[in-house]
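The pair is quoted verbatim below.
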Amino acid sequence: MTDAEPHLLVVDDDLRLRDLLRRYLADNGFRVTGAADAAEARAQLASFAFDLVVLDVMMPGETGLALTRALRERAAPRVPVLLLTAMGEPEDRVNGLEQGADDYLAKPFEPRELVLRIRNILQRRLSAAPATVEIRFGNFRFDPSRAELFRGGDTVHLTTVETGLLSILAQQAGQPVSREELSQSAGFSGNIRNVDVQMTRLRRKIERDPRYPRYLQTVRGTGYVLKPE
């Protein structure tokens, strides 16, 4: 085990599943810390820097969705979240993404798929900001070298997926980017509708009126475009 291994926090109230995941993920090159509930997860997050959180949705007390939302609201480095849940309906997946999750895997799942999804999220995080020129729009500025969005002097906290989408749009500012390209470049899994879901969330953080966006505009029949100033 080395410090170069990605450090994962696995949060699940099922001790048997938690231990199985700990062993399997460790065998696949990850450092793994476990937590039985949201309170223990918060304590671990306050003590260690994690590269990703694997989080069960249905837990006693504070749910995984509530913890995900809280993690997205806190003034701390963004930690990618992959949700695990027995609820596999499309609306459940969309709800998880709307709370700020980076990906969503329904139980029961194939452990190899979990590993692939984790690696995809971590790869997106590493390659999220290839542009070099700071982009300004309204009161906002996006620093591609740091993959950070600022409103005035304040940081706007984005999820890893939101950062990836904004980075891709910033690379091609003023030019339409297709949903397919956004999906592929940001490493989405599953339905391409996820692009629209995440863009809606991003607009809520940027646009004065998300229904009539000024900067993150829809291009009919194509995808989206970032309109800088």
Q: What stands out?
A: Helices lie at 15-27, 38-47, 64-73, 90-98, 111-126, 160-171, 179-186, 193-206. The radius of gyration is 18 Å.
